[in-house]
Amino acid sequence: MYVPAHFALSDIHGFLRSHVFAVIAGEIGGTIHFAYAPVVLDRGLGPLGAIRFHLARANPLANMETGVALKISVMGPHAYISPDWYETDAMVPTWNYLAVEGAGPVRRLGDFELRRLLSDLAAQEESALAPKPQWKMGRVPPARLDVLLTAIIGFELIFETLEGKAKLSQNRAPADVEGAIGGLERRGDAGSLAVAAAMRKARGGEGA
User: Fold this and answer.
1) How confident is the model at residue 203 (pLDDT cuts 50, 70, 90)?
2) Rounded to an integer, what is the distance from CA 193 to the centroid of its chain?
């Protein structure tokens, strides 16, 4: 990932906790394959943390053996920035965004670990639905769960590299940043509003 110092994301683990759907890339037989999966972050595992995820057994990447290197990419909000929003003249369009990339070797999870992954993933996402009572794995009859587990394979990836980028107009004059924020807020779609909020937070010195 190309990350100029002024665009470095300050809290990568925090980003991964709030943006859990990853693009997973790996090479099989000389061909690059992609997969898409929600992940559970294990911040304390290894110096940079780790993630766990599962793939359908029929997915080509599910054939990976322990030790194979993978890369992941997680996109946050992103939005077009019009030069008409700047106070400075003779500027060009750009795109603001937040993203994280990581890489490392994978390990296939055993049956118990796979069950724990699914339980942790459900708890992670159900916690955001409060005050709704949390759905738990115990509601699936054991025989049914055994059948479902045969269709997926779990993996753990311990990060050897982990980088984050928050391109939020930090290299622009304050008046230009305020103009871009105003333009995004007037546009009003979810992505534009999220980028505008991240830009305001970055301007406040709290990091993105």
Assistant:
1) confident
2) 18
